[in-house]
Amino acid sequence: MTHPDMTALGARLGAARTLDDALMTELCAGMAAVFPDAPAHAEVLAEPTEAVMHLLARCLPGWSIHLTGQAAESDGHWRCGLRASDIRDDDGVVGSADGPTIPLTLARALFDVAQKTAG
Predict the structure, then answer these.
(1) What's the predicted TM-score (pTM) here?
(2) Whole-angstrom Cα distance, residue 95 to residue 79?
(3) What is the DSSP letter of 21?
(4) Bridge partners of 98?
């Protein structure tokens, strides 16, 4: 995926209110360009949280996921942090994002790591 394609993907992730199948497929393609073990296409999983967790496990195996939010809110307000180690405070790359749904927030945090990794 080229730099303009990644920029467009970032814009779509930022504007999205949910992580639908089309956006998940595009995210997989973008992550495959950065992470060698990423699946090149979305797994056939009915639930978006399960699908993005599968992608995270393939792209960032062993990384820690910190997710906080208010499930009681009508649109949700979630915050996610991804880091290589829960033990150290000096990770070279840390991904962070917020969003209205858990899968979209996880996807945005993964994209943040990909952008920082690809440079």
Answers:
(1) 0.90
(2) 11
(3) H
(4) 79
